[in-house]
């Protein structure tokens, strides 16, 4: 991975001067979010070197899963690198910090994690991943069909954990599903034994883990080791092989919503995202090996597709490197034009900066050490 990042940075240093498009990319290649960030960096290496006839330079930095470092990177992108667009981090606290900086600098910011966005207050901020409410709704639907009425919750002790808790509490209450326990753990914790015991003692029909990446395996393992055998649900932030690797046999049976690209081959032939998903999987696995597909790599890829779709329109208004171009790029992204990606058919408007619908989600389950589509 270090070689990939170094190669990208060196290619930026040697890029030809002139009307180049500069893309700032902040990834969590180290720290608790590394299991997601490394795949984003992999996807960046596959992104086009020209868009709309103009050369593209990618400035890739490791934010180490730290909001302070992420915000510092965003300020550097704005003042030193003069980027035209920022692709934000894979961890929510970092992306939220970066979105604030990008908004002040009036640079289009595309988050590669599902942050909350108020378009009226954050006109330059967009997100590629499905919003929490859409994905938790899929979880609640599955819970209802499975006869779940009591849910034990354990989530990250940060904004991501808070947002998932609020969503499952609200959506669950509407269909008669109640939260009977609310536990938290830190992304850097090494044990969740105490929380697991409290969850089991609450007598839930199911447990919902509001985490992301490999750290989410911690409560999954703790629950399994203490004899929990009922349903366990996770967020779409865990759907990668690292979660299964860390969770081992304890991960078997874990359920989660995700974008269709993760199980592209398993989708019905008429699914609108099957073809673009298969194309991305073919390209990504040709570069990084069979079985290495990743939802977050696909989010990064979709972010690139959104930029590619908006650039030709922006170029008609201004040259890259200018405030006018950044404004035109933002406007083009928000224009309501559809962009077919691997996770969703994106359609951003002035009132919707997530731009996805129910086609952007499926439920999957860990079976035999892999993610399988839940019919």
Brief account:
The protein is an alpha/beta fold and 375 residues long. 40% of the residues lie in helices and 18% in strands.
Mind explaining what this structure looks like?
With 375 residues, the chain is of the alpha/beta class. 40% of the residues lie in helices and 18% in strands. It has twelve helices and 15 strands. The chain has helices at residues 2-13, 34-44, 67-79, 92-105, 132-145, 159-173, 193-201, 217-225, 241-247, 274-288, 295-315, 323-333; strands at 21-27, 50-51, 54-62, 85-87, 109-111, 125-127, 150-156, 178-185, 206-210, 231-234, 255-258, 339-340, 345-346, 362-367, 370-373. The strands form four sheets. The chain has a six-stranded mixed β-sheet with strand order 2-3-1-4-5-6. It has a four-stranded parallel β-sheet with strand order 8-7-9-10, sandwiched between helices. α5 (132-145) packs across α6 (159-173) and α8 (217-225) runs parallel beside α9. It is globular and about 60 Å long. It starts with a helix and ends with a strand.
């Amino acid at each position: 991975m270090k070689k990939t990042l170094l190669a990208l940075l060196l290619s930026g240093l040697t890029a030809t001067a002139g009307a180049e498009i500069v893309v700032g990319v902040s990834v969590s290649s180290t720290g608790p979010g590394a299991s997601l960030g490394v795949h984003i960096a992999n996807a960046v290496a596959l992104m086009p070197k020209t868009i709309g006839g103009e050369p593209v330079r990618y400035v890739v930095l490791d934010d180490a899963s730290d909001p302070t470092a992420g915000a510092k990177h965003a300020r550097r992108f704005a003042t030193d690198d003069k980027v035209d667009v920022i692709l934000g981090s894979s961890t929510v606290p970092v992306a939220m910090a970066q979105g604030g900086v990008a908004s002040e600098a009036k640079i289009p910011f595309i988050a590669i994690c599902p942050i909350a966005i108020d378009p009226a207050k954050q006109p330059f901020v967009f997100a590629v991943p499905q919003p929490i409410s859409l994905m938790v709704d899929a979880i609640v639907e599955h819970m209802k069909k499975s006869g779940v009425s009591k849910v034990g919750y354990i989530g990250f002790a940060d904004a991501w954990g808070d947002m998932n808790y609020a969503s499952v509490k609200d959506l669950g209450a509407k269909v008669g599903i109640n939260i009977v326990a609310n536990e938290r753990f830190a992304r850097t914790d090494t044990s969740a034994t105490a929380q697991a015991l409290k969850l089991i003692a609450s007598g839930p029909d199911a447990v919902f883990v509001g985490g992301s990446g490999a750290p989410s395996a911690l409560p999954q393992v703790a629950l399994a080791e203490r004899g929990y055998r009922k349903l366990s649900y996770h967020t779409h932030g865990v759907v990668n092989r690292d979660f299964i690797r860390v969770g081992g046999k304890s991960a078997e049976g874990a359920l989660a919503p995700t974008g269709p690209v993760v199980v592209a081959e398993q989708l019905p032939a008429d699914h609108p995202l099957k073809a673009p998903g298969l194309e991305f999987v073919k390209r990504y696995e040709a570069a990084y090996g069979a079985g290495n597909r990743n939802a977050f790599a696909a989010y990064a890829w979709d972010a690139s597709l959104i930029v590619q779709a908006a650039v030709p329109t922006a170029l008609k208004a201004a040259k890259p490197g200018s405030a006018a171009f950044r404004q035109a790029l933002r406007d083009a992204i928000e224009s309501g034009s559809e962009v077919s990606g691997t996770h969703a058919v994106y359609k951003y408007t002035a009132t919707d900066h997530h731009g996805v619908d129910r086609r952007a989600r499926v439920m999957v389950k860990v079976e035999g050490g892999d993610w399988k589509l839940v019919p």
